[in-house]
Design goal:
seven-stranded mixed sheet, single chain, Nuclear Transport Factor 2, Chain: A, 139 residues, alpha+beta, 32% helix
Length: 139
């Protein structure tokens, strides 16, 4: 029985590794292979659907085209995977009303993903956007 659970857990972790690789490649391609049609995302107090997730991720890539997200920790149990990540990028376009600064930034995130049938169906994220905004607004 544990081999089946371990295999499912390994598959779920691999899905998140592939998702991060997709992000590091600038989300070039379709979200279909990763995100379920009925996806629900929770980022702080904001709730998003799949189309909004895709819009936000692509918008972020325009502002930070060289963004790279590390996999600092990846912990899984059942249908949940927890990712602790550090993002590093250069601010090359407008972001949250802040014009291009060409500053290198680094910020962290913690995301819990829930998967079903090889797709992400739900996520809960806490991203340190305060640190990001502070770095962009440095004098």
């Amino acid at each position: 029985m544990s081999n089946v659970a371990d295999t499912e857990t390994d598959r779920n972790k691999e899905l998140i590794r592939r998702w991060i690789a997709f992000a590091n490649a600038g989300f070039a391609g379709s979200f279909d292979q990763f995100i379920a049609a009925d996806y629900v995302g929770h980022l702080g107090a904001t709730v998003t659907d799949r189309s909004e997730l895709e819009r936000l991720e692509r918008q972020f890539c325009l502002a930070f085209p060289d963004a790279r997200h590390s996999v600092d920790d990846l912990i899984a149990e059942g249908d949940r995977v927890v990712l602790r990540t550090t993002a590093r990028a250069t601010h090359r376009g407008d972001f949250e009303g802040i014009a291009r600064t060409d500053r290198f930034v680094e910020f962290t995130g913690l995301v819990v993903y829930r998967s079903r049938a090889g797709h992400i169906v739900e996520s809960w994220g806490e991203i340190d956007f305060l640190r990001l905004i502070r770095e962009l607004r440095k004098a």
